Amino acid sequence: MPLSPVFVKVSTPTKTRHYPTSRVEQPQRRRTHSTDDLASLITKPKTDRFGFLLENESEHGVKRRHSDTNKKISDPEKALVAKAAKQRALDKVTKRREKKWVNMIRSWEKNKNKKKHQQRILSRVRKGIPDKLRGAVWSLLGDVPNTIDFTKKGQYNELLLQAEMVGRGGRTDEDALVQVRDTIERDIKRTFPNHIMFKDLQEDRISEEEFDELLVSPTNTFDKNENEVAVVIYTKEEETPDLLNSAGGQASLRRVLRAYSMYDQETGYCQGMNFIVAMFLTFMTEEEAFWLLVFIMNDQPCNMRNMFGSDMSQSSQVLHVGSRLIEQFLPKLAKHLHRENVHISMYATHWLLTIYTTKFPFELVTRVWDCFLAEGWKIVYRIMLAILSVHERKLLKMDFEDILGFFRDVGQKAEADKLFEVAFKIQLKNKHVKKYEKEYLLQEKENKR
């Protein structure tokens, strides 16, 4: 049977020895260990500002890369001073933007239908929403507060209760729902595995034997503020995780995806949704994340539902539009890729279908979604064109194998500020996107005759 971690608070005062209540009393040992031994097991890992682990990798599988890694710094002290000055200037800009966003949030309901308000939103989201306010703004862009409080009040919990009953029989569609449940379960552990919220705790826990070895002898003394530690020990886990009561990021992700599979049983669940929902959960509650998922799937300007439907018809349309835009804005590169038999589906599928939530730095991902929630698909195509534009010269010198190898690692080369600067210089209009969407639909209609 699989094992799951249980966090047990262990008190270790000077005269009394405590074991977890679920364990059998053991004889005292003479061997002693300092609190540093235990602390080494439970030290809080270092993360970046988004919660991704910093040991060897950062942002969801993308290796850490510093622009100045290979540069020789002749004066380290001067470099530190310059870095500190740059950070102070950035903090000043951030505080100013936060103040503007707070004022906008306060008057959102009053002004949301005004053209001036909508124009101001577009202008500000393109500069990036401050991290502290991103969850609140995303919720407002998806009309989530009104959905939770009024139009769909209580429905999320009802859907979870329905999802909990899956696998217990009594439904005509039981087999299909069980299959969706099992697919979700497999994908959960693959979702942002190096994010502190979604990291698989099985990697970090210790066995009961190791726990025994590290229990502190009653002869040791502790500082008053250091006499409690959290230790992870093995316990048996049921075959199916407790949907309603499990804690942690993976549990929240499971609940949102399972609830959506009940809300929209025709779509159910499709790979890619897990990364989008996990991203939402880093900024908001799970109920907010659920209703924001409902919004992006079914409402303008995102309207992603047909990307994940059984026929995934919108996926083909998105790739067609992307290919035609490359021909329009980067004709030389388009011809080269065509000669090398490199189709857009070979490199841009995961860019476009998950809106960059996989294999790209999280700073870039969040900024793309700031714009996507406000203005829709245009930003998705802009970033695609910007990536290709930045690397066009290199790509033009490559053959088939080198091109595919380059695209596998292109996420590591992505710099948010640079790409957004390039992206907004591209003269892409909504009419271009609509033109190629209509072209695709006409082609499909002809093919069905």
Describe the structure.
The chain is mainly alpha-helical. The protein has helices at residues 35-42, 76-106, 108-111, 115-125, 131-141, 144-151, 155-164, 174-188, 208-214, 249-263, 273-281, 286-298, 313-329, 331-339, 349-353, 362-375, 378-390, 392-396, 400-408, 416-423, 430-447, and strands spanning 3-11, 57-58, 62-63, 228-236. The protein has a two-stranded antiparallel sheet with strand order 1-4. A hairpin with a 3-residue loop joins strand 2 (57-58) and strand 3 (62-63). Helix 8 (174-188) runs antiparallel to helix 10. The chain is globular. The termini are far apart. Mean pLDDT is 83; it is low at 1-33, 63-73, 204-208 and 214-238.
Order of helices and strands: EHEEHHHHHHHHEHHHHHHHHHHHH
Number of helices: 21
Major β-sheet strand ordering = 1-4
Q: Give the CA-based shape.
A: globular
Helix content: 40-55%
**Distance from first to last alpha carbon:** 54 Å
- Residue windows where pLDDT falls under 50 for at least 5 positions: 1-33, 63-73, 204-208, 214-238
Total DSSP E strands: 4
Proportion of strand residues = under 5%
**Helix/strand structural class:** mainly alpha
Alpha carbon gyration radius? 26 Å
Average pLDDT, rounded to a whole number, is 83
The profile of the biggest β sheet is: 2 strands, antiparallel
